[in-house]
Specification:
FAD-dep_OxRdtase; 2 domains; D-Amino Acid Oxidase, Chain A, domain 2; FAD/NAD(P)-binding domain; 28% helix; binds glycine
């Protein structure tokens, strides 16, 4: 561990990353690789939204209307994934990365119309999506239902296993001298005195602290609870809960699927992600009902819709049900970049990387790259659309 001790006894690092989910860990890995001392602060590393995530790297199939800046970021990050995986040291490369194709399926006529419209939007962005007949889709995946209304093929979307990626990142960060602090951040520390004083570290719930030249706040929804300079994030972030299932495919049914299957079933989105260990991840609901545990109706909906696409899902063993909250924002895009004060001035020592909503896994390499560039003193123009304070700045500039 490179983190040196400060005269007042607090450990000191070049960078403190608050949050050890896939985004925080990816940022920490990028920064230890640029020869910084890094401490990652999290009471339960990789136990939040990353623990639930299916891990689809789905820039093309997750396109939504009016999210052009986000699409560019997603496409850039999708390109960064292979290099990122190559950067991991020998012995930490078991990440479940698969370049298997994606099939997008609709069940009824309305689902077909929705997916046909989506394909038109994808085409306008130059994204390749190939229509298939249902027969062709079933030739690729014989376990699919014959009662589908439409099928499309997406070659560009891939997948990782986020739990494995996080495990490997923790090992990789440790191998380069980075360290994990198992505690919760409760407040930012600031140099005294003065309103414009830089952020100098993080206070922890055990009464200790971590001093750092830069603090990167990457703890998802937790970022809105740190108050002070981060108070604007309170109204910018909201929990969007998701239920997600893990099922085991019995030997006699393997492989149930080889491609990632994304469907719209009577208007409900569902995805089925086969893992190379013989399990199948089925997700995910999107709920804003405040229920943090698993919703019974969510499990029902996922199993019903997954079975509509692949009837043999009914014969699998249900091995896990998980619910976590995604950190949602008003425009579905992340809060990313150096934090600014109410006058719009950059706050020295404070960078934010949260609000990744449905795209935390896909966007983690580009978030890491951009955070490293910000820490290097750059102001990448690709961050212009993602200022962490963009909602509160826009409001404070409204005429009164
Ligand atoms: N990215 C998939 C989800 O949030 O469910």
């Amino acid at each position: 561990m490179h983190a040196a001790s400060h005269p007042n006894g607090e450990p000191r690092a070049d960078v403190a990353v608050v949050g050890g989910g896939i985004v925080g860990l990816m940022i920490a890995w990028e920064l230890v690789r640029s020869d910084r001392t890094v401490r990652v602060i999290d009471p339960d590393p990789a136990g939040g939204a990353s623990y639930a995530a299916a891990g689809m790297l789905a820039a093309v199939s997750e396109l939504h209307y009016q999210e052009d800046a986000l699409l560019a970021l997603m496409l850039e990050s999708a390109q960064l994934w292979p290099g990122l995986l190559d950067s991991l040291p020998e012995g930490t490369r078991d990440t479940g990365y698969r370049t298997a194709q994606t099939l997008v399926l609709g069940l009824d006529a309305a689902d077909k119309r929705a997916l046909t419209d989506l394909r038109a939007a994808q085409a306008r962005h130059g994204l390749e999506v190939e229509p298939l007949s249902v027969r062709e889709a079933r030739r690729i995946e014989p376990m699919l239902s014959p009662s589908l209304s439409c099928a499309f093929h997406v070659a560009a979307d891939h997948q990782v296993d986020p739990r494995r990626v996080c495990r490997q990142l923790i090992a990789a960060i440790g191998s380069r001298g980075g360290s994990l602090v198992r505690a919760s951040a409760v407040a930012l520390l600031r140099a005294e005195p003065g309103e414009n004083a830089r952020v100098t570290g993080v206070a922890l719930d055990d009464g200790s602290g971590v001093l750092a030249g830069e603090v990167i706040v990457a703890n998802g929804l937790g970022a809105s609870g740190l108050g002070g300079l981060l108070a604007p994030l309170e109204s910018a972030l909201r929990p969007v809960h998701g239920d997600i299932l893990r099922l085991r495919v019995p030997d006699r049914l393997r492989p149930l699927l080889t491609a990632t299957v994304r469907g719209v079933v009577r208007g409900h989105p569902v995805y089925l992600v086969p893992r190379d260990d013989g399990t199948l991840v089925v997700g995910a609901t999107s709920r804003e009902d405040g229920l943090s545990g698993v919703a019974a109706g969510g499990v029902y909906q996922l199993l019903r819709d997954a079975q509509a696409l692949a009837p043999a899902v009914a014969e699998l063993e249900l091995v896990e049900v998980t619910a976590r909250a995604r950190p949602g924002t008003r425009d579905n895009a992340p809060l990313l970049g150096r934090m600014r004060d109410t006058d719009g001035e950059s706050i020295a020592g404070l960078v934010v990387a949260t609000g990744f909503y449905r795209h935390g896994v896909l966007l983690s390499p580009v978030a890491a790259d951009l955070c490293r560039r910000v820490v290097d003193g750059e102001s990448p123009s690709s961050l212009d659309a993602f200022h962490p304070d963009r909602f509160s700045q826009a409001k404070s500039k409204e005429p009164v």
